[in-house]
Sequence to fold (236 residues):
Amino acid sequence: MTMNSEKLVRLERMGLGPVWQLRARADEPVAVDTTEVAALVAADFSALDWDELEATIRDCVRCGLCRGRTHAVPGIGDRNASWLFVGEGPGRSEDLEGEPFVGPAGKLLDNMLKAMQLARGVDTYIANIVKCRPVDADGRDRPPVQNEVAACRPFLERQIDLIKPTVIVALGKTAATSLLSLNEETSLASLRGEPHSYLGIPVVVTYHPAYLLRKPEDKAKSWRDLCLAQSLHDER
Ligand code: URA
Fold:
């Protein structure tokens, strides 16, 4: 273990975060071995209440994504919601504002909620698989990689534990495969159309709103997924 990693682990264990580090571009090689850090810091957030959990997410240094962020994006909504929508990770607008799905994909998600007679913050909670924005070498959004997903997973697990949603809607392939711990090569098509389970909570998989903006002809299929989610919700 490098000195840096040891120091980070010790500081995080002692609750002395945030650990300020020189800012670098998020796509640059990470100076600390963050896989090691993530593995070593006991990922037991099971005793944290909402405020402690959100503060821990905002101060998190468990993976390299912390280095490029403006804001971590814990999630938004009703903390006792019966509906949980899970996306991939913050994009540019979300990183700037600290709230999930506030860019163009977010506008479509809001319309999807409206079509279900739901609304942001009213019996709904919106979260992401990773809480900090992943960017590629050109500064564009990219899907999170495995160790970023693994480092962030305990946060979503604790959120689900606190919310106790009736139904979870996974938006897109990254959300679905990460939440359901499936091989990342699993196709979205193979996951749509039937409910899955996260610790007994039904999970419905549908298209990511950003994909639907590019392929609006698939909106009808997405609507079918949301109807499936609605019927599972109503029967519980
Ligand atoms: N895409 C996501 O998956 N999540 C967001 O918060 C924004 C865009």
Notes: The first strand starts at residue 76 and ends at 77.
